[in-house]
Write a structure and sequence with these properties.
heterodimer, A: mainly alpha, 2-methylcitrate dehydratase PrpD, 13 helices, 67% helix, globular, B: alpha+beta, 60s Ribosomal Protein L30, Chain: A, Alpha-Beta Plaits, 2 domains, six-stranded mixed β-sheet, four-stranded antiparallel β-sheet, 7 helices, 11 strands, ASB_dom_sf (chain B), iron-sulfur (chain B), gluconeogenesis (chain B)
């Protein structure tokens, strides 16, 4: 039905539909199911996301490796003291993104979006947009389809794998998906959604994947926190009427080319970036000597 | 261009932290368990490459054991699989090893029995929660477990494939891929199908005299 963002925009205009409705239509057609079944399937996704985004807010969650944890709780407690500089929405969003990242690192149940490593960004974005806008669960479920359409375009035309494209392909695409989704929730047009998706990806173009000790923990949870903020500011820019000079299709292609030209050491191998700092090496050494035997 | 489902992008719902080291490992364990006789008392996991290096940090050990206990990749009991295995009196061992020419995320899963010889399965987790099984008890094979799969061993003889495919067709089961290899007059037949393999089709295949070993695997959900 569509391979490119320009196809999606054309379909939206021709059928007078939102991006989410195009996504639902495509999924129902592809799997030969009634639209209602496809929407119900997304309800399960939302339930998993609600749980993972809130579990870490009240109790500390420690990772499987015991290297990181308890940070969602810290951010949430800090917020309660009303000392936050960047405000409620941003801090609450960061706390909820980190919560899902912590659930993931502790072997809890998450929904990959588009990957497990970047799974904190989308749930936090849509749930905090829901809170802010007073949207219904149904609006949120539709927004998830919008996010999925963006992620599908990235999967088809570029990559969402950190090993292939670096963190820009995981947390960058996740922020792009989230930005488009929350624009739709706020009443923006399909074009506004794609503008927001472009901004989010441009903001982190070139971001490398450099996990300490090769584990999906650090700096992953930080990039989930900054990813949700990236989604919100990109959405705001688009809703303010700022236009993306470069269409989303071309931004995706650029991201893919950048990913391919990144050296191996900066693509999930733990051979570059933060992962080879003396401290990271010491953490990795202690971890593998202490527990890998 | 390949068509993706919306739920390939937002999904799978899985136990973290890594689709290849955790979700894929659960699938690998579960597929191996479905190939094995069920009364095993001990399982040894030989881990190669990145599996050997990072299995504790990614919970690959817990994921593999969850698989042989029959859990799905989204089951929140995956985390506690080692304790659950212990309370079921199942002995679990892990062994870091190196296989030649193997994918970085490869495991050999060896099932031990009191009254019969060991049985093993080798497979790799190839990304995004997908797996490939490459060897069963010394026979090279190649299947992903994404499709219903039939695995047969029989004395090589003319007309076997036609007998099997006739049974499948009469049961409305379409063949997606098929591979037959031979050693010492014994043929190993692996076939992936588009449709679930029904009990009736299984019974009819098992009635073919020459078949020594038959396994039927329906896909692991994710």
């Amino acid at each position: 039905m569509y391979n490119k963002a320009c196809d999606v925009i054309e379909l939206c205009e021709k059928e007078n539909k939102k991006i989410s409705e195009i996504g639902i239509l495509k999924e129902a057609k592809m799997r030969n199911l009634p639209e209602e079944d496809v929407i119900n399937e997304m309800k399960n996704v939302l339930e998993v996301m609600k749980k993972s985004a809130t579990l870490g807010l009240e109790t500390p969650i420690i990772s499987q490796s015991r290297i990181t944890g308890g940070n969602a709780l810290k951010i949430n407690n800090y917020l309660k003291n009303n000392k936050s500089l960047s405000g409620n929405l941003i801090n609450r969003s960061m706390a909820m993104a980190v919560s899902t990242s912590e659930v993931n690192a502790s072997m809890g149940v998450i929904c990959a979006a588009p990957t497990a490593g970047a799974s904190g960004i989308l749930p936090s974005s849509i749930l905090n947009a829901k809170e802010k806008l007073g949207s219904s669960d149904e609006d949120v479920i539709f927004a998830l389809f919008t996010a999925a359409v963006i992620g599908e375009l990235a999967t088809k035309n570029a990559t969402v794998s950190g090993a292939e494209g670096g963190c820009q392909a995981e947390c960058g695409v996740a922020a792009s998906m989230a930005a488009a989704a929350i624009v739709e929730m706020a009443g923006g047009s399909p074009v506004d959604s794609f503008n927001a998706a472009s901004f989010a990806l441009i903001n982190v173009m070139g971001l490398i994947c450099d996990p300490v000790a090769g584990l999906v923990e650090y700096p992953c949870f930080l990039r989930n926190a900054s990813g949700v903020v990236n989604a919100f500011i990109s959405a705001d820019l688009a809703l303010a009427g700022v236009q993306s000079l470069i269409p989303f299709d071309e931004v995706l292609e650029a991201m893919y080319k950048v990913g391919k030209s990144l050296p191996d050491t900066l693509r999930e191998t733990a051979l570059g970036g933060i992962s080879i700092t003396p401290t990271a090496k010491e953490i990795a050494r202690r971890f593998y000597n202490g527990t890998a035997k | 261009m390949k068509d993706y489902s919306i739920f390939d992008v937002i999904g799978p719902i899985m136990v973290g932290p890594s689709s290849s080291h955790t979700a894929g490992a659960v699938k690998l364990g579960k597929t191996a368990m479905e190939l094995a006789e069920k009364n095993f008392y001990k399982v040894i996991f030989y881990l190669h490459g990145s599996f050997a290096k990072t299995y504790k940090g990614h919970g690959t050990d817990k994921a593999l054991v969850a698989g042989i206990l029959g859990f799905e990749p989204s089951d929140d009991r995956v985390k506690y699989s080692l304790e659950i295995a212990k309370s079921n009196n199942l002995i679990i061992e892990f062994c870091e090893t190196e296989f030649e020419y193997a994918h970085p995320n490869t495991a050999k899963i060896e099932f031990h029995y009191l009254n019969s010889s060991v049985f093993y399965v080798i497979g790799s987790s190839i990304g995004g929660g997908n797996i490939v099984i490459t060897n069963i008890n010394g026979d090279d094979v190649e299947f992903t477990g994404q499709y219903p799969t039939i695995l047969l061993k029989y004395k090589d003889k003319k007309g076997m494939i036609s007998q099997i495919s006739t049974i499948l067709a009469s049961n409305e089961i379409n063949i997606a891929s098929m591979k037959v290899t031979r050693s010492n007059n014994l043929a190993t037949f692996v076939c992936e199908t588009d449709n679930i393999i029904t009990d009736k089709a299984k019974e009819e295949i098992l009635r073919i005299n020459e078949i020594n070993i038959a396994k039927f695997i329906n896909p692991v959900r994710s």
